[in-house]
Amino acid sequence: MGIKIGNDKFFERVDKGINDKFMRKAVVEAQSRLEGRKTQTTEEMGNWEDWRDLSEEIRQHTLENLDYYLDQFVENVAKQGGHVFFAEDAAEANDYITSIVKKKEAKNIIKSKSMVTEEIGMNEALEELGCNVVESDLGEWILQLDDHDPPSHIVVPALHKNKEQIRDTFQEKRKYDKSSDPNELAQFARKELRKDFLSAEVGITGCNFAVAESGTVSLVTNEGNARMATTLPKTQITVMGMERIVPTWKELDILVSMLCRSAVGQKLTSYITGLTASKEEGDIDGPEEFHVVIVDNGRSKILGTKFQSALQCIRCAACINVCPVYRHVGGHSYGSIYPGPIGAVLTPLLEGYDDHKELPYASTLCAACTEACPVKIPLHELLVEHRKVIVEQSGKSSFGEKLAMKGYAFAASNPGVYKVGSSSAPSFISSVAKGKDGHGKGPGPVKMWTDIRDLPEPTGETFRKWYANREKERDQS
Amino acid sequence: MTTGSIHNKDKFLNNVANRLGRKRRKEGVELPKWSKLPQYEVFDGLSQDELLAQFVLQCDSIHTNVVVTSFEELGKIFPEVIEDLGGKSIVHWKDPRFQEYGLLEALNKEKEEGCSIYEWNPDLGQRNIDKAEQANIGITFSDVTLAESGTVVLHSDNGKGRSVSLLPEKYLAIIPKSTLVPRMTQATDKIHDIAKENGRMPSCINFISGPSNSADIELRLVVGVHGPVKATYIVVDDR
Lengths: 477, 239
Description:
The complex is a heterodimer of chains A (477) and B (239).
Chain A: H1 10-19, H2 21-43, H3 48-64, H4 66-79, E1 83-87, H5 90-103, E2 108-111, H6 115-119, H7 122-128, E3 132-135, H8 138-145, H9 163-174, H10 182-199, E4 202-205, E5 209-211, E6 216-221, H11 225-231, E7 235-241, E8 245-246, H12 249-264, E9 271-276, E10 289-295, H13 318-322, H14 324-329, H15 340-351, H16 368-372, H17 379-393, H18 399-412, H19 415-434, H20 447-452, H21 463-476
Parallel strand pairs in A: 1-10, 2-3, 2-4, 4-7, 5-8, 7-10
Antiparallel strand pairs in A: 5-6, 6-9
Helix pairs in contact in A: 2-12, 3-12, 15-17, 18-19
Chain B: E1 6-7, H1 9-19, H2 48-61, E2 64-70, H3 74-84, E3 89-92, H4 96-100, H5 103-112, E4 116-119, H6 127-134, E5 137-141, E6 144-146, E7 151-155, E8 170-176, E9 180-181, H7 184-196, E10 204-208, E11 213-214, E12 222-223, E13 230-237
Parallel strand pairs in B: 2-13, 3-4, 3-5, 5-8, 6-9, 8-13
Antiparallel strand pairs in B: 6-7, 7-10, 11-12
Helix pairs in contact in B: 3-5
């Protein structure tokens, strides 16, 4: 799939999102529920800010010493018989993964949820080999059955679908003949996927955190699908972003606790599994062969820059669950597998600004995301940094915008000019409000606004004038 | 055990170090003294009975039944719990604690009454997984138990198959009360000690908190997806 989803332009995607009434209602409900549960479980701790401080320190220390901890991790994996491949980009990662699958002559592959495998388009690479790749996370399975509908949330990927749509998909693709009751739908998925788990030769997982001191990969789920994928197939391949690492089990404790509370408001999810290489001699279940693929794919470029803190992310989606922009436009509008505030920060860093230059502007800079983040990534500040880069350095902004920014900087530092400037604004706004065709559709940045409502015709009165008049009237009364 | 392979390490890690604006760090990195350690404040100073009370409270919110019993009463309670879970077929760990707690005897009685009983047997290969897949109930002991989250921690081993707590329709954990600790911190501290002493890490450590579940459809909670649809704990006072 890759990071980018679909070929629609930003405003086309936003239009679709805004007009999708079911999706918008679902997102509003999901946000309030997830956010409510998170607040409840964090408030009861009484010292949530201490936990956040500690988590930030852990993530910062780990990133500053990333080469050291990765080295320690992979040596421990190899010492216990596991195989490690460092992949610079998607192509290298997929080449290695497909080579393992070929060697095993595997046809059936079961996957548990993993954002990084989406990012590198691994499923497509395996399908080209003729493999049957099955997503086992319930949400991901629904999307896969529905002709690979892209995810709209990193924790609840099928958030934009209602149960009737899901029932219809099951009916059409798998001859399902029961109701749209979520329990019945899930029981059906259990039965169908059980067969896939039992027949798969290779299990592929992501990695929530890798533990350097022991060479352990940890997986956090509620459904138990990651356990299935690492218990039954003979070969396990774990794919991880290179920043997904903690020094020791003590730090694993903290970050897993933060992830579970921030993502779903649980103290711990139903299953947290620590896997250290392949099964031991004499063990019956568990993989005979264990591979870890560590993926860069643009991450190292973020190190040592003012965006480094973006790599602190633990993929909990707490920022998404509080974002007022996400609330209105939904996940698909971001055009990335990483939506919401973290997506708006991360996507241009991983894929460049060309296709994603609007994302840093898809924010009100209200800072709700920064406050929600359990590892204290200053998300809204990073969005401002992106805007600076876009405007000042990358040359991706229009000449007019650059000129306007420069003009603003000059005028704002010179009150006299600012006064003149703002009194000349009404005539500019007037032309925008009428639009090129005179029907109230403004160009560029005000288009989104004027799509929904017409801009008021300016009265020719500036705020300063209005305020002065109001004060005068007050004095007179 | 044969050592595994590592590909592209130096090129990759040299690049990481370059980006960080320094030379590779191969040694000498020490964990800083963290400014705060809130994890040790949770249930600090609580007695074993108080921890148990917290544990029972939490289990209620993770859809898990808890039965608390004495060592002496376990033999009486056990068949009742099995009946409640629907009996029929049981798979359980090969673990000396089953003998110590008198559960092998209890399981034998179940067998006499027509229940199929299977003890995990490392010599029988795939048959173990087939048995677990068909079983109605999987039974394990808990190695460490977390009061805060209602969690049982299982360390895998030859006789302690991963499938027993995963594949059967229902899961039953026997929890010696002495295994109760405040939270995940105490469990991971112990695992950290194993790793630090370069001891043998269990290939799989599971933290299990109740039955499997999902909220992927309209955020409505569904209990029982890929793992067990029902979980029950028996806490045994072993002191």
